[in-house]
Protein backbone atom coordinates (compact mmCIF):
# COMPACT_ATOMS: atom_id res chain seq x y z
CA UNK A 1 0.00 0.00 0.00
CA UNK A 2 1.20 3.50 -0.84
CA UNK A 3 1.84 5.77 2.11
CA UNK A 4 3.83 8.93 2.75
CA UNK A 5 5.63 10.14 5.84
CA UNK A 6 6.19 13.84 6.40
CA UNK A 7 6.84 16.32 9.20
CA UNK A 8 3.58 17.18 10.96
CA UNK A 9 2.15 20.69 10.79
CA UNK A 10 -0.25 22.66 12.94
CA UNK A 11 -3.13 21.36 10.81
CA UNK A 12 -2.32 17.77 11.83
CA UNK A 13 -2.87 18.35 15.56
CA UNK A 14 -6.54 17.36 15.46
CA UNK A 15 -5.67 13.99 13.91
CA UNK A 16 -2.68 13.49 16.22
CA UNK A 17 -4.91 14.12 19.25
CA UNK A 18 -7.48 11.67 17.85
CA UNK A 19 -4.83 8.98 17.36
CA UNK A 20 -3.38 9.69 20.82
CA UNK A 21 -6.78 8.78 22.25
CA UNK A 22 -6.91 5.60 20.17
CA UNK A 23 -3.42 4.64 21.42
CA UNK A 24 -4.36 5.38 25.03
CA UNK A 25 -7.54 3.28 24.70
CA UNK A 26 -5.46 0.39 23.40
CA UNK A 27 -2.95 0.81 26.23
CA UNK A 28 -5.82 0.97 28.76
CA UNK A 29 -4.67 4.34 30.07
CA UNK A 30 -7.31 6.59 28.49
CA UNK A 31 -8.11 8.11 31.90
CA UNK A 32 -4.52 9.37 32.18
CA UNK A 33 -4.63 11.51 29.05
CA UNK A 34 -5.43 15.15 29.76
CA UNK A 35 -3.55 16.73 26.88
CA UNK A 36 -5.59 18.83 24.43
CA UNK A 37 -5.30 19.69 20.76
CA UNK A 38 -4.46 23.25 21.81
CA UNK A 39 -1.59 21.98 24.01
CA UNK A 40 -0.18 20.15 21.01
CA UNK A 41 -0.51 23.20 18.81
CA UNK A 42 1.23 25.43 21.34
CA UNK A 43 3.92 23.01 22.46
CA UNK A 44 4.89 21.44 19.15
CA UNK A 45 4.62 24.30 16.73
CA UNK A 46 5.98 27.36 18.50
CA UNK A 47 9.46 28.82 17.93
CA UNK A 48 10.92 26.60 20.64
CA UNK A 49 8.94 23.38 20.30
CA UNK A 50 8.85 20.83 23.13
CA UNK A 51 8.47 17.97 20.67
CA UNK A 52 8.53 17.09 16.97
CA UNK A 53 6.06 14.93 15.10
CA UNK A 54 5.86 13.01 11.86
CA UNK A 55 2.68 11.75 10.27
CA UNK A 56 1.70 9.02 7.81
CA UNK A 57 -0.90 9.56 5.15
CA UNK A 58 -2.52 7.18 2.70
CA UNK A 59 -4.19 8.16 -0.61
CA UNK A 60 -7.92 8.96 -0.64
CA UNK A 61 -8.82 5.52 -2.02
CA UNK A 62 -7.48 3.87 1.13
CA UNK A 63 -9.19 6.20 3.61
CA UNK A 64 -10.84 4.62 6.66
CA UNK A 65 -14.59 4.14 6.92
CA UNK A 66 -14.64 7.34 9.00
CA UNK A 67 -12.85 9.19 6.22
CA UNK A 68 -9.37 9.44 7.77
CA UNK A 69 -6.29 9.54 5.55
CA UNK A 70 -3.88 10.43 8.38
CA UNK A 71 -3.44 6.96 9.84
CA UNK A 72 -0.21 6.98 11.85
CA UNK A 73 2.17 9.27 13.71
CA UNK A 74 5.20 9.45 15.90
CA UNK A 75 6.20 12.06 18.46
CA UNK A 76 9.84 12.45 19.43
CA UNK A 77 12.32 14.86 20.96
CA UNK A 78 16.04 15.12 21.58
CA UNK A 79 17.35 13.90 24.92
CA UNK A 80 20.73 13.12 26.41
CA UNK A 81 22.33 9.99 27.78
CA UNK A 82 25.02 10.41 30.41
CA UNK A 83 26.52 7.18 29.04
CA UNK A 84 26.52 7.94 25.33
CA UNK A 85 25.54 11.56 24.73
CA UNK A 86 22.99 12.78 22.18
CA UNK A 87 19.88 10.66 21.88
CA UNK A 88 16.32 10.70 20.57
CA UNK A 89 13.30 9.67 22.62
CA UNK A 90 10.29 8.35 20.75
CA UNK A 91 7.31 9.22 22.95
CA UNK A 92 4.64 7.65 20.72
CA UNK A 93 4.60 5.38 17.71
CA UNK A 94 1.13 4.58 16.40
CA UNK A 95 -0.44 3.08 13.30
CA UNK A 96 -4.22 2.57 13.09
CA UNK A 97 -5.06 -1.17 13.48
CA UNK A 98 -6.30 -1.71 9.91
CA UNK A 99 -3.01 -0.39 8.49
CA UNK A 100 -0.67 -2.54 10.57
CA UNK A 101 1.63 -5.19 9.13
CA UNK A 102 2.46 -3.06 6.08
CA UNK A 103 5.81 -1.69 7.24
CA UNK A 104 4.44 1.69 8.28
CA UNK A 105 5.60 1.48 11.91
CA UNK A 106 9.07 0.44 10.82
CA UNK A 107 9.16 3.28 8.28
CA UNK A 108 8.19 5.84 10.95
CA UNK A 109 10.91 4.53 13.29
CA UNK A 110 13.44 4.52 10.49
CA UNK A 111 12.62 8.15 9.72
CA UNK A 112 13.42 9.11 13.30
CA UNK A 113 16.69 7.14 13.26
CA UNK A 114 17.68 9.01 10.12
CA UNK A 115 17.61 12.26 12.07
CA UNK A 116 21.02 11.27 13.30
CA UNK A 117 22.28 11.54 9.77
CA UNK A 118 20.63 14.92 9.36
CA UNK A 119 22.46 16.05 12.49
CA UNK A 120 25.70 14.65 11.12
CA UNK A 121 25.11 16.62 7.93
CA UNK A 122 24.61 19.74 10.04
CA UNK A 123 27.87 18.93 11.78
CA UNK A 124 29.74 19.20 8.49
CA UNK A 125 27.80 22.30 7.62
CA UNK A 126 27.95 24.16 10.91
CA UNK A 127 30.86 22.52 12.65
CA UNK A 128 28.59 21.03 15.27
CA UNK A 129 29.20 17.76 17.07
CA UNK A 130 28.02 14.41 15.68
CA UNK A 131 24.39 13.36 15.84
CA UNK A 132 22.47 11.02 18.08
CA UNK A 133 23.70 7.53 18.85
CA UNK A 134 20.57 5.94 20.24
CA UNK A 135 16.81 5.89 20.23
CA UNK A 136 14.94 5.35 23.52
CA UNK A 137 11.29 4.68 24.22
CA UNK A 138 9.00 2.78 26.56
CA UNK A 139 6.73 -0.15 25.81
CA UNK A 140 4.10 -1.99 27.85
CA UNK A 141 5.39 -5.42 28.89
CA UNK A 142 2.02 -7.10 28.14
CA UNK A 143 2.04 -5.74 24.58
CA UNK A 144 3.83 -8.72 23.01
CA UNK A 145 3.18 -7.54 19.46
CA UNK A 146 4.93 -4.24 20.17
CA UNK A 147 7.77 -5.90 22.12
CA UNK A 148 8.38 -8.39 19.28
CA UNK A 149 8.26 -5.60 16.73
CA UNK A 150 10.83 -3.49 18.57
CA UNK A 151 13.08 -6.42 19.37
CA UNK A 152 13.01 -7.49 15.72
CA UNK A 153 14.50 -4.07 14.96
CA UNK A 154 17.34 -4.83 17.38
CA UNK A 155 16.01 -2.83 20.33
CA UNK A 156 17.06 -3.90 23.80
CA UNK A 157 14.77 -4.09 26.86
CA UNK A 158 16.80 -2.07 29.36
CA UNK A 159 14.32 -2.79 32.14
CA UNK A 160 14.58 -6.58 31.76
CA UNK A 161 18.32 -6.63 31.01
CA UNK A 162 19.65 -4.13 33.53
CA UNK A 163 16.75 -3.55 35.90
CA UNK A 164 16.04 0.07 35.05
CA UNK A 165 12.55 1.14 36.12
CA UNK A 166 10.79 4.16 34.69
CA UNK A 167 9.65 6.55 37.42
CA UNK A 168 7.32 9.54 37.50
CA UNK A 169 6.68 12.27 40.03
CA UNK A 170 3.55 14.31 39.26
CA UNK A 171 0.51 15.96 40.80
CA UNK A 172 0.71 16.85 44.50
CA UNK A 173 4.08 15.14 44.93
CA UNK A 174 5.58 17.25 42.17
CA UNK A 175 4.06 20.39 43.68
CA UNK A 176 5.43 19.50 47.12
CA UNK A 177 8.86 18.88 45.67
CA UNK A 178 8.85 22.27 43.99
CA UNK A 179 7.64 23.94 47.20
CA UNK A 180 10.35 22.50 49.48
CA UNK A 181 13.07 25.10 49.88
CA UNK A 182 16.53 23.66 49.29
CA UNK B 1 26.27 21.07 56.51
CA UNK B 2 26.34 24.15 54.30
CA UNK B 3 26.02 23.53 50.60
CA UNK B 4 25.04 25.55 47.57
CA UNK B 5 23.27 24.54 44.36
CA UNK B 6 23.80 26.51 41.18
CA UNK B 7 23.56 26.14 37.40
CA UNK B 8 26.65 24.34 36.08
CA UNK B 9 29.09 26.15 33.80
CA UNK B 10 31.66 25.00 31.27
CA UNK B 11 34.27 24.87 34.05
CA UNK B 12 32.25 22.23 35.91
CA UNK B 13 32.41 19.64 33.12
CA UNK B 14 35.58 18.00 34.44
CA UNK B 15 33.93 17.40 37.81
CA UNK B 16 30.64 16.34 36.24
CA UNK B 17 32.50 13.77 34.11
CA UNK B 18 34.35 12.53 37.21
CA UNK B 19 31.10 12.11 39.13
CA UNK B 20 29.45 10.43 36.12
CA UNK B 21 32.17 7.78 36.35
CA UNK B 22 31.60 7.37 40.09
CA UNK B 23 27.85 6.97 39.47
CA UNK B 24 28.43 4.44 36.69
CA UNK B 25 30.82 2.43 38.91
CA UNK B 26 28.15 2.33 41.61
CA UNK B 27 25.52 1.27 39.07
CA UNK B 28 27.89 -1.41 37.70
CA UNK B 29 27.67 0.02 34.18
CA UNK B 30 31.09 1.72 33.96
CA UNK B 31 31.84 -0.15 30.70
CA UNK B 32 28.82 1.51 29.06
CA UNK B 33 30.02 5.07 29.55
CA UNK B 34 31.80 6.47 26.51
CA UNK B 35 30.92 10.13 26.96
CA UNK B 36 33.85 12.56 27.31
CA UNK B 37 34.37 15.87 29.05
CA UNK B 38 34.53 17.47 25.61
CA UNK B 39 31.13 15.98 24.68
CA UNK B 40 29.65 17.53 27.81
CA UNK B 41 31.23 20.89 27.05
CA UNK B 42 29.91 20.88 23.48
CA UNK B 43 26.47 19.46 24.16
CA UNK B 44 25.54 21.25 27.37
CA UNK B 45 27.03 24.67 26.86
CA UNK B 46 26.43 25.61 23.25
CA UNK B 47 23.69 27.96 22.06
CA UNK B 48 21.25 25.09 21.70
CA UNK B 49 22.17 22.82 24.60
CA UNK B 50 21.06 19.18 24.62
CA UNK B 51 20.89 19.15 28.43
CA UNK B 52 21.09 21.38 31.48
CA UNK B 53 23.02 20.70 34.66
CA UNK B 54 23.07 21.90 38.25
CA UNK B 55 25.92 21.34 40.67
CA UNK B 56 26.33 21.21 44.46
CA UNK B 57 29.34 22.70 46.17
CA UNK B 58 30.47 22.56 49.80
CA UNK B 59 32.80 25.09 51.48
CA UNK B 60 36.57 24.44 51.45
CA UNK B 61 36.58 23.13 55.04
CA UNK B 62 34.33 20.22 53.98
CA UNK B 63 36.30 19.26 50.86
CA UNK B 64 36.93 15.55 50.26
CA UNK B 65 40.29 13.91 50.97
CA UNK B 66 41.03 14.28 47.26
CA UNK B 67 40.31 18.00 47.46
CA UNK B 68 36.89 18.09 45.76
CA UNK B 69 34.34 20.73 46.72
CA UNK B 70 31.95 19.90 43.85
CA UNK B 71 30.24 16.89 45.38
CA UNK B 72 26.92 16.42 43.59
CA UNK B 73 25.14 17.15 40.34
CA UNK B 74 22.02 16.58 38.32
CA UNK B 75 21.51 16.55 34.56
CA UNK B 76 18.06 17.20 33.13
CA UNK B 77 16.27 18.26 29.97
CA UNK B 78 12.76 19.10 28.84
CA UNK B 79 10.68 16.31 27.36
CA UNK B 80 7.04 15.78 26.46
CA UNK B 81 4.38 13.40 27.66
CA UNK B 82 1.61 12.52 25.24
CA UNK B 83 -0.60 12.08 28.32
CA UNK B 84 0.15 15.27 30.20
CA UNK B 85 2.29 17.57 28.05
CA UNK B 86 5.42 19.40 29.18
CA UNK B 87 7.73 17.41 31.39
CA UNK B 88 11.27 17.29 32.73
CA UNK B 89 13.51 14.22 32.57
CA UNK B 90 16.19 13.88 35.22
CA UNK B 91 18.95 11.87 33.56
CA UNK B 92 21.32 11.76 36.55
CA UNK B 93 21.07 12.61 40.23
CA UNK B 94 24.27 12.03 42.17
CA UNK B 95 25.72 12.95 45.55
CA UNK B 96 29.15 11.61 46.59
CA UNK B 97 28.73 8.84 49.22
CA UNK B 98 30.24 10.76 52.17
CA UNK B 99 27.76 13.62 51.64
CA UNK B 100 24.59 11.52 51.52
CA UNK B 101 21.80 11.70 54.10
CA UNK B 102 22.12 15.49 54.43
CA UNK B 103 19.24 16.50 52.17
CA UNK B 104 21.43 17.34 49.17
CA UNK B 105 19.76 14.87 46.78
CA UNK B 106 16.33 16.13 47.77
CA UNK B 107 17.48 19.73 47.31
CA UNK B 108 18.79 18.99 43.81
CA UNK B 109 15.51 17.32 42.85
CA UNK B 110 13.51 20.15 44.34
CA UNK B 111 15.52 22.63 42.29
CA UNK B 112 14.55 20.82 39.11
CA UNK B 113 10.87 20.66 40.12
CA UNK B 114 10.96 24.43 40.68
CA UNK B 115 11.73 24.91 37.01
CA UNK B 116 8.05 24.45 36.43
CA UNK B 117 7.43 27.61 38.38
CA UNK B 118 10.08 29.43 36.38
CA UNK B 119 8.28 28.33 33.22
CA UNK B 120 4.99 29.52 34.69
CA UNK B 121 6.60 32.86 35.40
CA UNK B 122 7.74 33.02 31.78
CA UNK B 123 4.18 32.25 30.75
CA UNK B 124 2.96 35.42 32.42
CA UNK B 125 5.87 37.34 30.98
CA UNK B 126 5.83 36.01 27.44
CA UNK B 127 2.32 34.65 27.08
CA UNK B 128 3.64 31.11 26.75
CA UNK B 129 1.79 28.02 27.93
CA UNK B 130 2.08 26.70 31.47
CA UNK B 131 5.14 24.84 32.67
CA UNK B 132 5.94 21.20 33.25
CA UNK B 133 3.61 18.95 35.16
CA UNK B 134 5.86 16.00 35.86
CA UNK B 135 9.39 14.81 36.44
CA UNK B 136 10.51 11.49 34.94
CA UNK B 137 13.63 9.44 35.51
CA UNK B 138 14.87 5.86 35.70
CA UNK B 139 16.19 3.97 38.69
CA UNK B 140 17.80 0.54 39.09
CA UNK B 141 15.40 -1.88 40.76
CA UNK B 142 18.15 -3.35 42.98
CA UNK B 143 19.04 0.09 44.30
CA UNK B 144 16.66 0.01 47.28
CA UNK B 145 18.16 3.15 48.84
CA UNK B 146 17.43 5.14 45.69
CA UNK B 147 13.97 3.60 45.22
CA UNK B 148 13.03 4.38 48.85
CA UNK B 149 14.37 7.90 48.47
CA UNK B 150 12.35 8.57 45.34
CA UNK B 151 9.19 6.93 46.65
CA UNK B 152 9.45 8.97 49.85
CA UNK B 153 9.23 12.05 47.62
CA UNK B 154 5.99 10.69 46.19
CA UNK B 155 7.43 9.29 42.95
CA UNK B 156 5.62 6.41 41.30
CA UNK B 157 7.26 3.32 39.77
CA UNK B 158 5.61 3.32 36.33
CA UNK B 159 7.34 0.06 35.39
CA UNK B 160 5.97 -1.84 38.40
CA UNK B 161 2.56 -0.17 38.41
CA UNK B 162 1.71 -0.11 34.70
CA UNK B 163 4.29 -2.43 33.12
CA UNK B 164 6.19 0.18 31.10
CA UNK B 165 9.64 -1.08 30.10
CA UNK B 166 12.44 1.24 29.08
CA UNK B 167 13.87 0.32 25.67
CA UNK B 168 16.96 1.32 23.75
CA UNK B 169 18.05 0.89 20.15
CA UNK B 170 21.73 1.70 19.60
CA UNK B 171 24.89 0.61 17.80
CA UNK B 172 24.47 -1.53 14.69
CA UNK B 173 20.70 -1.83 15.17
CA UNK B 174 20.33 1.94 15.22
CA UNK B 175 22.51 2.25 12.13
CA UNK B 176 20.47 -0.41 10.33
CA UNK B 177 17.24 1.34 11.24
CA UNK B 178 18.55 4.61 9.82
CA UNK B 179 19.74 2.87 6.67
CA UNK B 180 16.44 1.18 5.84
CA UNK B 181 14.62 3.27 3.29
CA UNK B 182 11.02 3.93 4.21
Beta percentage of chain A is 25-35%
CATH class of chain A: Alpha Beta
Q: Superfamily at the CATH H level of chain A?
A: Gcn5-related N-acetyltransferase (GNAT)
Total strands of chain A: the figure is 7
Which fold name corresponds to the CATH topology of chain A?
Answer: Aminopeptidase
What does this structure look like?
Two copies of one chain form a homodimer. Chain A is of the alpha+beta class. Chain A is built from seven helices and seven strands, in the order βααβββααβαβαβα. Chain A has a five-stranded mixed sheet with strand order 1-2-3-4-5, sandwiched between helices. The radius of gyration of chain A is 18 Å and the shape is globular. Chains A and B meet through helix 1, helix 2, strand 3, strand 4 and helix 3 of A and helix 1, helix 2, strand 3, strand 4 and helix 3 of B.
Write a brief caption for the model.
Two copies of one chain form a homodimer. Helix content of chain A is 37%, strand content 27%. Chain A has 182 residues and is an alpha+beta fold.
Keywords:
5-stranded mixed β-sheet; globular; 27% strand; Aminopeptidase; 182 residues
Describe the protein's topology:
2 copies of one chain form a homodimer.
Chain A: E1 4-7, H1 13-26, H2 37-44, E2 52-57, E3 70-81, E4 85-95, H3 104-113, H4 115-126, E5 134-140, H5 144-152, E6 156-157, H6 158-162, E7 164-170, H7 171-179
Parallel strand pairs in A: 4-5
Antiparallel strand pairs in A: 1-2, 2-3, 3-4
